[in-house]
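ugh ok fine here u go
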Amino acid sequence: MNARHAAVITSLLLSPALLAAPAFAQTAPGPEAAAGERLFRARCASCHSLDAGQNRIGPTLNGLLGRKAGSVEGARYSQGMRDSGITWDAAQLQTYLANPRAMVKGTTMAIAVPAEADRAALAAYLETGSKP
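structure:
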């Protein structure tokens, strides 16, 4: 192999397109999601699970984003939650976590997350840790 062929092969092997992760590869959660996981374990996991079909005092949060509030089979909901008409997205979740009882009259959730950064971290974690 001559020097020209070696240079072409080397440039192809070091091409950024070839070094990029495949489209199907899962990426590790970012720092915000990692902080959200810690918060979830400390503040939410005693009442909620991320495992599909595993309801606790509160419903599973698996697949939460995009789901209609009050719709998990077998979970206990207040009438206010069932009638809320909410479809969960990151913005709705953050508003709810800031003051659950102000957003949904009659909700049984008594825990609020006052810090905006904490709410954003929890939403980021639920996006990465939740499987549809």
